């Protein structure tokens, strides 16, 4: 199976977690795109979705699912999203698609985070994938210097502006042995909006699509 077929397969398996849920949190990325496509068949049961990006919003609207403001819905029962890396503790590295800030907000506001990935995203230690950090534009160089102090090699994602009007630094060569501590440390740098480490609030369920089926971590 191709990686995209595995993404589709794992997206299908997440449908089991939205039964009876009328308002969903929806992430961003190619795996979630498959999930959104599948939602078309269930739209009569779905009151609406809180979306983590303009891209997912457009896709949801196209299939006729109303997109709701998080402020109007309060806490969410389930949030479904992908990840760039996930470890055995259900901690994730996210933000390859640049939507990390809204993703982290929705994750925090949701009772259950269902992470859907193909098995290639499963790692022993987070950090091989460059860690995205969303920054206020005027702070970019300052934050980059602080990230070097933490042992990383930040690279500006040039010609890219987030949905929130900010910029992204992708931090290479990190070996993240303590994701909770690193998330806290990077959160504390002035000018950082969001770091793509989801360790303080990890996933509740991880579904990993592989050749023989879907493996679940819970
Ligand atoms: C977007 C994300 C995505 O979940 C992550 O990049 C995985 O994407 P894909 O499903 O395309 O592999 O964090 O900001």
UniProtKB/TrEMBL annotation:
Annotated metabolic or biological route of this protein: Carbohydrate degradation; pentose phosphate pathway; D-ribose 5-phosphate from D-ribulose 5-phosphate (non-oxidative stage): step 1/1
Gene Ontology biological process terms in this record: D-ribose metabolic process; pentose-phosphate shunt, non-oxidative branch
Sample GO molecular function, one term: ribose-5-phosphate isomerase activity
Residues annotated as catalytic: 103 (proton acceptor)
One Pfam family recorded for the sequence: Rib_5-P_isom_A
EC annotation from Swiss-Prot or TrEMBL: 5.3.1.6
Residues involved in substrate binding: 28-31, 81-84, 94-97, 121
Gene Ontology CC annotation, any one: cytosol
Top-level taxon: Bacteria
Catalytic activity: aldehydo-D-ribose 5-phosphate = D-ribulose 5-phosphate
Top enzyme class: isomerase
Keyword entries, A-Z: Isomerase
SUPFAM superfamilies tied to this protein: D-ribose-5-phosphate isomerase (RpiA), lid domain, NagB/RpiA/CoA transferase-like
Keyword Isomerase: yes
Protein family according to the UniProt entry: Belongs to the ribose 5-phosphate isomerase family.
Function noted in UniProt: Catalyzes the reversible conversion of ribose-5-phosphate to ribulose 5-phosphate.
Subunit and partners: Homodimer.
Descriptive protein name: Ribose-5-phosphate isomerase A
Organism for this UniProt entry: Methylocaldum marinum
């Amino acid at each position: 199976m191709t990686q995209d077929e595995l993404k589709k397969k794992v997206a299908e398996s997440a449908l089991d977690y939205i039964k009876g849920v009328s308002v969903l949190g929806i992430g961003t990325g190619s795996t979630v795109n498959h999930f959104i496509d599948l939602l078309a068949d269930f739209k009569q049961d779905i009151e609406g979705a809180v979306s983590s990006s303009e891209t997912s919003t457009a896709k949801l609207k196209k299939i006729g699912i109303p997109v709701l403001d998080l402020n109007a819905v309060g806490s969410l029962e389930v949030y479904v999203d992908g990840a760039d890396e996930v470890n055995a503790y259900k901690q994730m590295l996210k933000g390859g698609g640049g939507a990390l800030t809204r993703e982290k907000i929705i994750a925090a506001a949701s009772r259950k985070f269902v992470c859907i990935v193909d098995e290639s995203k499963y790692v022993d230690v987070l950090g091989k994938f460059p860690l995205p950090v969303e920054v206020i534009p005027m702070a970019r160089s300052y934050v980059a210097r602080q990230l070097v102090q933490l042992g990383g090699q930040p690279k500006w994602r040039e010609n890219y502006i987030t949905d929130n009007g900010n910029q992204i630094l992708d931090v290479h060569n990190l070996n993240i042995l303590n994701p909770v501590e690193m998330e806290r440390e990077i959160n504390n740098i002035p000018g950082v909006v969001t770091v793509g480490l989801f360790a303080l609030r990890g996933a509740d369920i991880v579904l990993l699509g592989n050749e023989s089926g879907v493996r679940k971590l819970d």
